[in-house]
Amino acid sequence: MGKEDPNFGVLFKSVKTERADPVETTIKGFVPTWLSGSLLRNGPGKFEVGEEKYKHWFDGLALMHKFSFRDGKVYYQSRFLLSDAYKKACKYNKIILSEFGTLGVPDPCRTIFERFASRFIPLNITDNNLINFFRIGDEVYTSTETFNPRKINVEDLSSDPKKMNLLYTMGLATASAHAQKDRDGNTYNIGTTYIGGSAYNIIKFTPGKTGTLSLPLHTRMIMNNVLLYVTFLLHTHDPSKSAETVCSIPARSLTRPSYYHSFGMTDNYFVFLEQTLYCNVSKLAMSAILKIPVRHCLEYEPEDESFFHVVEKKTGKITTVKYRTVALFGMHVVNSYEEDGHIVFDICCYHDDAILNKFYLDYLRQGDKNGERSFPRPELRRFVLPLNVDSDTPVGVNIVSLPDTHATAMLRDDGTVFLNYEIVSEVGIDMPRINYDKFNGRKYRYAFGCANQGSGDFMNSVVKVDLKTKKCKTWYEKFCYPSEAIFIERPNATEEDDGIVMTTVIDTIREQSFLLILDANSFEEVARAEIPKGIHYPMTFHGEYVD
């Protein structure tokens, strides 16, 4: 949407005052009385610190939101995440910790030596967890793509004073913003390690587990890979200190590991897409001297091929088949599952990483030199990975035997299997969600996501995609911008889409925000809960329903 929406910048306006105490919303329609939990949302809420401004949508200081359901009523509250990034920014009235698109200033509390060293070794990595939530057992943590998840209290949205440090406990310099949870209650994530060369480590959190920990004690000379390992018995409630590494996947480049935001998991496998957007580690290590943020360290290579890695969950063994596909950029895996000797992998994709540049705040608020904005449309792509590839597999023919798919896979002369994707929906979606509890890692039919209603529009509609019939149902209102749509199953449900879908919506013209509740089957509106006028609600990224 270009010049048509005069108030588009409202979506990216700072929140001046958090709402720690719940306020009742105004209900239109009827909220299901069986809803008794809380919907959590996470996203940026503060884009300025003193005279300084964050530059990218992914940079703003994290603001958590909560919608509570009681007897058909809905209550809203919000609190800033008390991260080190937030506390230091407030203390010094400056942006201290660098973010995705914004460079911070040296921490005034550091010694002269530490300030000098920080120009070569990033000592202050942001813990501004503005992207998502994930659960380990009954505990809820905030996350972004760095190594410092922080637990929160769901009741009052207060922040735990301590945070995980996956760099020290697991050797991870980054971590996916989208952890996965299996049906046994274990939580998995993937992160990049630079110890001995770049690799992607899949880690496992087992709720309540304590035991032996191999802890890397960093000497602050990470660039020289000087690491001491001390093993000791530790009984702790911090799950990262008893986590285990399931598998380590070597990166194709030791100095340019791939950027990623999520990964796939079936009942028996992990699926990791090593795409062609790389992080230049040398630039990243010198970012303070070069005066560049993380975004400028990412390099897209359109001529390269993307790699798929498949890992056995039980053994941590990487399968021997080498899967390849075209260059692409994707942040959100929709789902993956096994079917008749294949893995089906669905992901929201773009042809390159240009979408990241569209999220600079100057562009979002003001547009280009003509005051216009245009955003690329995502594609919902399906890849099919045959598992049974051996010396008898024919070369140069499609070896996908699943019905009802146009995705193909061909063994090449060099021994790699090249995958051609199928676009499974004429409506491109991003920020996808499914009936996660019942169908994550298993064959499914429905996906919910945000879409561009018109060519070049910002995400301004919510869509239900039927992956069997390829038909879509859409909710859309002009000048209204929804967030990720979260599915909540109805008690005693018998169908995959028996429940509701909830999304938060911002009406820029009325400057009115509301929680929208749709019937997941018909996609008709059930209710909306309007936040009181005068309470600003900015765009959010991801969320979690906690019952």
From TrEMBL:
Keywords assigned by UniProt, alphabetized: Iron, Metal-binding
Family: Belongs to the carotenoid oxygenase family.
GO terms assigned for molecular function: beta-carotene 15,15'-dioxygenase activity; carotenoid dioxygenase activity; metal ion binding
Classification via InterPro entries: Carotenoid_Oase
Positions of Fe cation binding: 178, 261, 332, 542
Protein name per UniProt: Beta,beta-carotene 15,15'-dioxygenase
Cofactor note: Binds 1 Fe(2+) ion per subunit.
Lineage: Eukaryota, Metazoa, Echinodermata, Eleutherozoa, Echinozoa
One GO term of the biological process aspect: retinal metabolic process
The keyword Metal-binding is annotated on this UniProt entry: yes
Signal peptide start-end: none
This protein's record includes keyword Metal-binding: yes
The protein's required cofactors: Fe(2+)
Organism superkingdom: Eukaryota
